[in-house]
Amino acid sequence: MAKLHLVDAFTDRPFTGNPAAVRLGTRPPDEAWMRLVAREMNLSETAFLHPVEGGFSLRWFTPSAEVDLCGHATLAAAFVLWETGALPAADPARFLTRSGWLTCTREGEWIAMDFPSLPCVAAIPPEGLAATLSAEPRHCAGNGMDLLVEIEDEAVLRALRPDLARIAALPARGLIVTARSRQPGIDFVSRFFAPGVGVPEDPVTGSAHCALGPYWQAKLGRAELTGFQASTRGGVVRLEVRGDHVVLRGQAVLMGAVELKADQA
Predict the structure, then answer these.
(1) Alpha-carbon distance 198 to 107, whole Å?
(2) Strands 121-122 and 224-229: what pairing?
(3) Residue 112: inside a domain, yes or no?
(4) pLDDT in tens, 46-90
(5) C-alpha span between 176 and 194 (Å, rounded)
(6) Does residue 111 sit within a domain?
(7) pTM more than 0.90
(8) Which position among 31, 40, 45, 259 bears the catalytic label?
(9) Are residues 142 and 96 in the same domain?
(10) Domain annotation covers residue 116
(11) Quick check: is 151 in a domain?
């Protein structure tokens, strides 16, 4: 049987943050089986890993697509390796992914992930963007993967009910919406919509913070930042911009495990 661990990532409390399922196997699973499992779990990402020379192979699947980079499921995968004893807590977790090698280290209750920086460059807003969001963009940028839009006010961001069909038609994996935070200890807030890959709204998105980090570093003049993703579940991401890398820090909670009788790997 296939065992999957269920983890809430980017949080220290159950039922918040971003849930992910993690399958640790001994050899590469069949791709069609991984897609079926991800669809069955119906989470924003299901992670599949197995040992390879130098670490672990790691792939991420939404219910409808494989993605090139995912933060919360990487955090969840590292957490499962340490929690289950598959990797000593003092050892770094190294993952071979479609975005190259990614390294996670444990820092007490926090997990630090060394990710590539994905800075955005200014872009002309797609036609109808304001109507799509029901909010006026202050700035629009893109990085070849996602579009990033800054709006004026945190309260407006939290109340957004965007047109998901129009977002799905944008030439990007997803749409990051961000604003300066009004909360003490939080520098910026964000939300992330990716209906085109089967994720209407992602609860907490590590890969989006690879763009948000350099964006807010340039605006605020600081390399160390704290972001809050203001989905209904919500989650905190601590960031440190280091040149062409961004260190993302988050916590995780092990929620349980499920066993699938239909094991193909």
Answers:
(1) 33
(2) unpaired
(3) no
(4) 999 999 999 999 999 999 999 999 999 999 999 999 999 999 999
(5) 9
(6) no
(7) yes
(8) 45
(9) no
(10) no
(11) yes
Nearest residue to 206 via CA among 116, 106, 80, 88: 116
Q: Is 53 a catalytic residue?
A: no
Full domain range(s) for residue 150:
121-243
- Cβ contacts of 102-108, under 8 Å, gap ≥ 24: 102/58, 102/74, 104/74, 104/75, 104/78, 106/78, 106/82, 107/249
Domain check: are 229 and 254 in the same one?
Answer: no
User: 132 and 213: one domain?
Assistant: yes
- Look at the chain and report how many structural domains it folds into: 2
191-222 confidence digits (pLDDT tens): 999 999 999 999 999 999 999 999 999 999 99
| Residue 82 belongs to domain with CATH number | 3.10.310.10
Nearest by Cα to 245 from 100, 102, 115: 115
- Over residues 100-134, the pLDDT tens digits come to 999 999 999 999 999 999 999 999 999 999 999 99
Tens-place pLDDT, residues 140-153: 999 999 999 999 99
